[in-house]
Amino acid sequence: MEDTTTVTMVEEPEALFSGLTFVIIPTAISTEEQQQLTQDIVENGGTLHPFDDGNGRIRDLRTITHIISTTSDFPDYQSALELFKHVIKPSWVQACASTKKIRNPRTYSPDPALFMTDVVICCGSSIPQGDREAIQGGVLAMGGQFTAALTKTTTHLIALDLEDDRCGLALNKRLRIIMLLPHWFDDCLRLGRRISERPYILPDPEILNAEAGAIPSIKAIPHVRDAADPEPADPRPPRPAEHSESTRHIQAFKGKKIMLGEDLSLSRHLKDAITETIEARGGRMTNTVEEADMYVCNYREGVEYTKASQADKDVGNLSWLYHMITHGAWTSPLRRLLHYPRPRGGIPGFEKHKISISSYTGDARVYLENLIIACGAHFTKTFRQDNTHLITAHKQSEKCEAAEEWAVHIVNHLWLEESYARCREQSLTNRKYVYFPPRTNLGEILGQTEIDRAAVASHFFAKTTKQSRTKSDQDKDTHSTPAASKVARTKSAPAVSTPAVSRHANPDGKENETPGSTGSRSAKDKALSKLHDAASDIAKFEKEMKRKGGVVHGGCRAKDLDVPDNSKKSRDRDSVASKRSFEEVEDAGNAKEESQDSVIEIKKVKRSKKDAPAPVKFRMLISGDKRWVNNGDKESKDKSKLRELGLFVVDDPKKVDILCAPKIVRTQKFVSALASAPTVVSSSYLDYALQHSKLPPPHEHILRDSDFEDKYGFRLDEALERAEQNKKRLLKDWNIFCTQHVVGGFDTFKEIIQSNGGVCHRWEGRTTTINAAKRTIKNADAEVSQNQEEDEGDVLYLISGSTKPDMKLWPKFRELAKKHDMVPRIVSTEWILFVAMAQYVHWDPVWEMQ
């Protein structure tokens, strides 16, 4: 009988790493770990390709699919990226093997641009859904991982306080996890670096403590070790470290040929010493670029430098060479800024800058000094008023206070490093260069910026064939990857833009800032309110003038806020160009941290440090806007948010950069502020800033009110031009009288007159010793135009109402004018309002009281 049995063939599942070829870079990977990696790869069907220890390179790179390394600092890293090879940390293999699933290689990349690698974030239940999505998008874009549920692999739990359910769960399970405020994530994204979690950790985060004391100093910064000076202080080759023969490093010189450039100007004795040292380490010297594996020189110039660079050889300076001799391990000269040859003449534009530094010590200070000089700027150990920039690790220093007074740019070191790395001066409109997270010493992230090879190539040795992978085009404004810059805030691809506003609390009492809230992040208000409660001094600056009849002519209560902007009006105002006469200012408060020749001498300080105003970028006055009426909590939060954006809402109309109102209003502060020639914007400017957590261009929100202009006979834009000419001196040398009970109040018109340089006297009908002398008529070509062409010179003005008490005072006023041989003119308030708003002296008989 025929056998008709059918045999069904069952295919075995394909091995996890089937078809994948690996190579292990031995740097910082122990022998035991390498053995475990080999076992995991082989057991899961992968192929392990041996690493060539002889020359420290990967054989047959094109056949490799995955490169396992703890760092991007190995010779074939750039070539691997160009060939689209996956470079992963050892933890990727372990994660794949444990879950039996191929994980995303991006989240295990050693690329320093992906600064959130090794971070697994989970959000607490108190974080709104929209913010969770944005945080998820941000952490994934920066190389980290996000988990919806709290697991043992979670490293960071984002919450507002320990009352969050997930915080309680983590504590009960005794999970080794960092529980912290969302502000940490915000600040990391803003800087493009991973900063310390310390100031943000729950339950008592330092950023909410207004009395936290001085910001801790940074004792050691590994990224600038042996890389603080492009020219070693000791010209002799260093002695190799005892551990330099470790097999966990790529040998620096074994099988390599090294060429020394002529611009090093080395003596024969020193060349011989270097040759002996390198040959003892397995290397050889050569005199031709074509044979060399490494080319050592001082500057980015010359035929040999160009040839070596275009041939993708290692090109570095003597400091780089000595670093490899010391440690016996290869390192890329692009990894540390001062290991790569300098541009002769520096970075274009830096020759105009005079730069000082604050709050950096030891190697960090030396590193920044040398980097400033390498950029081509003038470094000053003493901070003076003619400095253009102050580089600081935080803003708790007297240098920063003086810089605010003198309108000197206060920047963090990222501006200097990235300008040097990208071969061009970076714009300070990028806020990350002027941002200082609360309670954070930015010295902890010093030296992490690498040379942008694409930028150097385009400026110094542009290739005609093979092009290198460019980071500068992908990453111009943030230290991130292309994916990070393209993340949009949608449900499918959450944006990185959730954290838009910093949360500041200055513990020394100089500046108290409450945190702002971003868009829908209502949950954050909980944490922000705590900071607000601690920031008692903010009330000094936000106290509003309250008075009856706050509007001069019948409107609502005047609430004037001062929000400034980068308009042409904010250049060298009296408020910025301080009258403090410092001959020298150094950071006395950081004397222990800085070198001895950096001691500060403060002379003729007109106000104490305790009374110094909080440093601000811009000042804004708001008038006629009713958004905060009967809502003090919202007012406080909105003002704090604006303050964190660089806008300080003030009450003083004499120090205004931007004037904001829903329409042209005739309030005391609006009228007084016009003398400062501010940029006048509509309330839509505030709406945009509060909604988007960033400052819009002022010219897009210019206030237009043609009805008002037609009614009162002047154009606001022309008035502001005249105010610019007048320089607050429209009524200089004028003595103007005003009755006590005039509509709007004497104090209102006194403020308006004084804002324009005049003097206002209360007229009560009694004998006065006031000098009412005639005014000198100014020439048209005077140094400061006061727009007084219509001034008659001999007219004495009394601003009065039409009530009987006021009218009884008129005869005595006429006697006063006659006594001083002047013409008495008793006028309504319309006269002074027109003059102050139109910004020129004008007379119309309709204003005279009969």
UniProtKB/TrEMBL annotation:
Q: What is this protein called?
A: BRCT domain-containing protein
PROSITE patterns for this protein: BRCT (PS50172)
> What range(s) does the BRCT domain occupy?
12-110, 110-202, 350-422
- Looking at the record's lineage, which domain of life comes first? Eukaryota
Give the organism the record lists.
Sporormia fimetaria CBS 119925
Residue ranges, compositional bias (Basic and acidic residues): 470-479, 557-597
Question: Which InterPro entries does this entry report, sorted A to Z?
Answer: BRCT_dom (IPR001357), BRCT_dom_sf (IPR036420), CellCycle_DNARepair_Reg (IPR053036)
Signal peptide segment: none
Which Pfam families did the record assign?
Answer: BRCT_2, PTCB-BRCT, RTT107_BRCT_5
Which cellular components does GO assign to this protein? Answer: Cul8-RING ubiquitin ligase complex; nucleus
A biological process term (GO) from this entry = double-strand break repair
Question: Could you tell me which residues belong to the region Disordered?
Answer: 226-248, 464-530, 548-597
